[in-house]
């Protein structure tokens, strides 16, 4: 360490342009003497997050540079040594496992960057393909081991890195969550950004040619081993071409063929001879010295192949959105929600694809999409959206009154610019991971809620110009979207196992209210469309009448769907009330909380949002407890007034509680009728033609949940009726976790008969 | 008498002690040792000091008759960016041999009581979705799951955020100033 300069600090600062070093050891120890052991010296901006990121030097679990006695800083591995074809398969398959672990969200540091081959290729910071080599000495030998390493393995590694570059570019250009969805950190390594894709493909083809030709045939004894290598190189090429950012029109086809190509890998994986020394956890040391040593993530080969197959299928599906860009906005959003709902949820890369395609649309196209959206709900064949309005030029005379059409266009433009942020969110939302979708929904709901007043004002202006419009059309549109989002947020709560079993009655009750509200909106809007259609028919405007009829039919389908959700949610709410009254779902004691506080916490995202408008806790409690508390732990501190049910004799009260089972059954039946009506109308009407298969499956699953709930209720009811109070000895109820249900949003209790 | 109170009587020798800065050299190494057992990646000493120096009165230890550390809870209380006065349970651990006796529940209740006395609006924490014992403990006390945090931990595991409201009106509190603390163990949107 250089000696301490004698110049005072002030003069050193003045000389800041010349870098200098000085020893602070003595002053540091002097100052530290004034502090007690363990005193934390921090400014007010030092956060817990930073404390968590701190390291302790010389602690082997935290200090990545810590060496055990006799340990070397790095593992030595000679990347130029010849390998057998089987060993190359071993390395390549291990690389694929790491690549897929990286796609899952693990950092390169714990996956691909543990490879000595990758480390050497990137260590020289190659700016063109000829520099991306394992050795600066060109490999002139033509022996098999050399070709297998310097041509075949090198081509595979280079293409893998380039693929990572493409994936990183695509994912990071869109909305994603670092570490949670994807780890974009490259540890200051350049992932061959400057190397052209064509050169990489050419290198792969050279390797392919060698393996197919005489060289390969004479070098590799076993034909299947050679074919195994060939299939790996071909897959690498195919994957690279498919991943190319910008997504060519053939991207869908390119991804689609990958799953079948993987068969060739699986069949020849048995030849793989691992080369464990070609990977090392110690490479982390020179890439990231400020994080603790982290374990290598080992994904089994079969798992990696499955992941790549899924990723390719998801990516191919995602590319399909291109076909629907000119369709209705409803169609696009249905596509996105269906895509997001695939199981398992698509990884970050496939989720970036629809975003890439959508957000490369010019703003004008977005505006057209938005106008179509408005027309489809609140302005069917309406003069408000007449394109002529946007062509009227202002009068050159100062002070002249503006043309009503031009004012209308201005109002709509203002509306669009004020709300566009939220409109984009309707499309970004279903491209996030499921947990984030639910959390982001809350923010988007609040944004839409904040538009209430501005939209109301714009509507007032609009209604002065247009007498025959939907009442408060813009506000209606905003409120309708809000209701859809609130509904989705509650439903995702079921899917993500957010609600405890004794919250289910309440959450289905709340869902039912939201859907009822939404249904009301749709019924009003479809009535308006019907009226307008009749008027057009009267005026002999056949074309307009038929266009409005389409809107009417679609709105009616949507109303029917909303009504089915309302009814089924009501039925499930009654079913869980019944099960609580029968003590199948006991209320936990919860000594630190009250029902009112939990209601406030659970409903926090909706406390201030209108519509739907959250009922007061008292109302919720009363509706969910028609016959008083469920059990001794369920009590309402405020409810001391005598209720009607208190006047009933115990036997009659029990009979009333038992009747809830039939009430739930009746409501399920009504819901099923609505669902069957929706099913009959088909996916096309509501804009789900693009995802017809998923649409059909979804309805079928909901119907299965209806049947399942009916059976569960009947089973419990029968035992309750015959065994009375002793029912608990005969049966128990289990709440199946997400993934083990007929439908993630409709939780059917599992009835277990006790032995 | 609740289950945890009943079972606590089975460990009569147990006593609960509040942490004190002056005893760091005595307490901290054993606290670290106990907590590190459950962690894939250890916390540095700064994390412990971050809590223990600022909120020593929100850290409680369970000791046996020989003053051996059996369990510990580490928490903090501050104004959160959401506008609430938020208590946060950062760490909770009980010696494996002594689990299932209600010691963790008792520790958590003591910490929450202390935070409630200091005017906390809510208590918050995260736990792995597969940690059924922890979920059972907190949910039994009245916590609800407010969020599911995908791949929240470094090992890729997903968490639930659990919340307990202590005061009415907490849900209506609004963000005060953007510089207020975020405060979770990991950064969050």
Automatic annotation (TrEMBL), chain A:
Domain NAA35-like TPR repeats: 326-719
Swiss-Prot/TrEMBL keywords: Coiled coil, Cytoplasm, Transferase
GO cellular component: NatC complex
Coiled coil stretches, renumbered: 654-681
Residues covered by the NAA35-like N-terminal domain: 38-200
GO MF, one annotated term: transferase activity
First-listed, main subcellular location of the protein, grouped into a coarse class: cytoplasm
Subcellular location: Cytoplasm
InterPro entries, sorted: NAA35-like_N (IPR057983), Naa35_N (IPR007244), TPR_NAA35 (IPR057982)
Entry-linked PANTHER family: GLUCOSE REPRESSIBLE PROTEIN MAK10, N-ALPHA-ACETYLTRANSFERASE 35, NATC AUXILIARY SUBUNIT
Family statement drawn from the similarity comment of this UniProt entry: Belongs to the MAK10 family.
Name of the protein this chain belongs to: Mak10 subunit, NatC N-terminal acetyltransferase-domain-containing protein
TrEMBL record, chain B:
Keyword Nucleotidyltransferase carried by entry: no
Protein's name in the database: N-terminal methionine N(alpha)-acetyltransferase NatC
Subcellular location(s) of the protein: Cytoplasm; Nucleus
InterPro entries per UniProt: Acyl_CoA_acyltransferase, GNAT_dom, NAA30-like
Upper taxonomic lineage: Eukaryota, Fungi, Dikarya, Ascomycota, Pezizomycotina
EC identifiers of the protein: 2.3.1.256
Reactions mediated catalytically: N-terminal L-methionyl-L-tyrosyl-[protein] + acetyl-CoA = N-terminal N(alpha)-acetyl-L-methionyl-L-tyrosyl-[protein] + CoA + H(+); N-terminal L-methionyl-L-phenylalanyl-[protein] + acetyl-CoA = N-terminal N(alpha)-acetyl-L-methionyl-L-phenylalanyl-[protein] + CoA + H(+); N-terminal L-methionyl-L-isoleucyl-[protein] + acetyl-CoA = N-terminal N(alpha)-acetyl-L-methionyl-L-isoleucyl-[protein] + CoA + H(+); N-terminal L-methionyl-L-tryptophyl-[protein] + acetyl-CoA = N-terminal N(alpha)-acetyl-L-methionyl-L-tryptophyl-[protein] + CoA + H(+)
This protein's UniProt keywords: Acyltransferase, Cytoplasm, Nucleus, Transferase
GO MF entry, a single one: protein N-terminal-methionine acetyltransferase activity
Domain (N-acetyltransferase) ranges: 19-167
Gene Ontology, cellular component aspect: NatC complex; nucleus
Family matches, as PANTHER family: N-ALPHA-ACETYLTRANSFERASE 30
Family stated for the protein in its record: Belongs to the acetyltransferase family. MAK3 subfamily.
Superkingdom of the source species: Eukaryota
């Amino acid at each position: 360490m250089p000696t301490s300069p004698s110049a005072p600090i002030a003069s050193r600062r003045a000389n800041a342009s010349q870098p200098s070093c000085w020893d602070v050891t003595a002053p540091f120890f002097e100052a530290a003497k004034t502090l007690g052991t363990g005193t934390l010296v921090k400014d007010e901006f030092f956060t817990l997050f930073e404390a968590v990121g701190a390291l302790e030097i010389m602690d082997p679990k935290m200090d990545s540079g810590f060496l055990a006695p006799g340990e070397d800083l790095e593992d030595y591995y000679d990347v130029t040594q010849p390998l057998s074809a089987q060993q190359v398969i071993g390395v390549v398959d291990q690389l694929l496992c790491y690549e897929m672990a990286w796609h899952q969200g693990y950092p390169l540091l714990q996956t691909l960057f543990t490879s000595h081959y990758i480390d050497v290729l990137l260590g020289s910071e190659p700016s063109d393909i000829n520099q991306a080599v394992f050795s600066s000495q060109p490999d002139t030998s033509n022996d098999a081991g050399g070709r297998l390493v310097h041509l075949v393995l090198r081509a595979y590694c280079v293409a893998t890195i380039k693929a990572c570059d493409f994936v990183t570019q695509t994912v990071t250009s869109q909305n994603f969550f670092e570490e949670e969805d994807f780890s974009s950190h490259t540890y200051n390594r350049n992932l061959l950004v400057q190397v052209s894709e064509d050169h990489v493909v050419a290198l792969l083809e050279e390797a392919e040619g060698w393996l197919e030709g005489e060289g390969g045939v004479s070098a590799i004894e076993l034909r299947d081993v050679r074919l195994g290598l060939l299939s790996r190189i071909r897959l690498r090429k195919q994957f690279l071409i498919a991943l190319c950012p910008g997504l060519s029109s053939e991207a869908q086809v390119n991804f689609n063929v990958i799953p079948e190509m993987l068969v060739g890998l699986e069949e020849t994986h048995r030849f793989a001879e691992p080369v464990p020394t070609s990977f090392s956890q110690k490479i982390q040391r020179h890439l990231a010295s400020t994080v603790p040593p982290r374990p290598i993530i080992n994904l089994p080969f079969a798992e990696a192949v499955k992941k790549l197959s899924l990723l390719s299928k998801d990516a191919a599906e995602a590319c399909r959105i291109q076909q629907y860009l000119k369709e209705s906005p409803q169609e696009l959003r249905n596509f996105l929600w269906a895509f997001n709902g695939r199981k398992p949820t698509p990884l970050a890369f496939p989720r970036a694809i629809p975003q890439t395609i959508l957000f490369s649309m010019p703003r004008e196209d977005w505006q057209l999409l938005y106008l179509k959206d408005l027309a489809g709900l609140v302005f069917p064949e309406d003069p408000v959206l007449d394109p002529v309005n946007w062509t009227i030029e202002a009068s050159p005379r100062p002070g002249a009154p503006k043309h009503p059409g031009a004012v209308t266009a201005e109002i709509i433009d203002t509306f669009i610019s004020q709300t566009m942020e939220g409109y984009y969110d309707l499309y970004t939302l279903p491209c996030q991971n499921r947990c984030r979708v639910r959390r982001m929904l809350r923010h988007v709901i609040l944004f839409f809620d904040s538009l209430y007043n501005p939209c109301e004002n714009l509507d007032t202006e609009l209604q002065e110009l247009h007498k025959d419009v939907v009442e408060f059309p813009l506000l209606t549109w905003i409120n309708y979207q809000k209701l859809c989002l609130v509904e989705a947020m509650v439903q995702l709560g079921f899917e993500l196992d957010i609600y405890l079993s004794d919250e289910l009655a309440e959450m289905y009750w709340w869902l039912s209210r939201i859907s009822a509200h939404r249904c009301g909106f749709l019924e009003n809007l479809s009535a308006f469309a019907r009226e307008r259609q009749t008027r057009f028919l009267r005026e002999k405007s056949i074309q307009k009448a038929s266009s409005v009829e389409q809107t009417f039919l679609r709105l009616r389908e949507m109303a029917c769907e909303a009504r089915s959700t309302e009814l089924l949610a009501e039925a499930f709410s009654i079913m869980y009330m019944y099960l609580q009254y029968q003590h199948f779902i006991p209320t936990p004691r919860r000594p630190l909380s009250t029902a009112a506080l939990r209601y406030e916490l659970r409903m926090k995202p909706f406390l201030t949002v209108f519509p739907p408008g959250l009922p007061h806790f008292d109302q919720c409690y009363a509706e969910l407890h028609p016959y008083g508390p469920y059990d001794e732990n369920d009590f309402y501190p405020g409810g001391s007034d005598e209720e009607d049910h208190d006047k009933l004799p115990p036997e009659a009260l029990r009979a009333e509680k038992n009747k809830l089972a039939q009430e739930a059954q009746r409501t399920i039946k009504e819901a099923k009728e609505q669902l069957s009506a929706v099913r009959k109308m088909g996916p096309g009407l509501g804009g789900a033609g693009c995802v017809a298969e998923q649409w059909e499956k979804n309805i079928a699953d909901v119907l299965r949940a209806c049947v399942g709930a009916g059976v569960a209720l009947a089973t419990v009811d029968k035992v309750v009726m015959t065994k009375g109070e002793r029912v608990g000895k005969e049966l128990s109820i289990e709440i199946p976790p997400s993934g083990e249900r007929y439908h993630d949003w409709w939780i059917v209790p599992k009835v277990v008969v006790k032995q | 008498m609740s289950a945890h109170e009943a079972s606590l009587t089975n460990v009569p020798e147990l006593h609960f002690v509040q942490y004190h800065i002056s005893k760091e050299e005595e307490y901290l190494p054993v606290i670290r040792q106990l907590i590190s057992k459950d962690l894939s990646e250890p916390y540095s000493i700064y994390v412990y000091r971050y809590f223990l120096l600022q909120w020593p009165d929100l850290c409680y230890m369970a000791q046996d008759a020989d003053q051996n550390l059996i369990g510990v809870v580490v928490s903090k209380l501050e104004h959160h960016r959401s506008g609430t006065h938020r208590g946060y349970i950062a760490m909770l651990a009980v010696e494996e041999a002594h689990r299932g006796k209600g010691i963790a529940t008792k520790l958590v209740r003591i910490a929450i009581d202390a935070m409630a006395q200091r005017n906390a609006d809510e208590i918050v924490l995260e736990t792995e979705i597969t940690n059924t014992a922890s979920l059972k403990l907190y949910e039994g006390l009245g916590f609800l799951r407010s969020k599911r945090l995908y791949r929240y931990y470094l090992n890729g595991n997903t968490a639930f955020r659990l919340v307990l409201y202590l005061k009415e009106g907490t849900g209506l509190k609004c963000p005060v100033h953007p510089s207020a603390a975020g405060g979770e163990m990991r950064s969050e949107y």
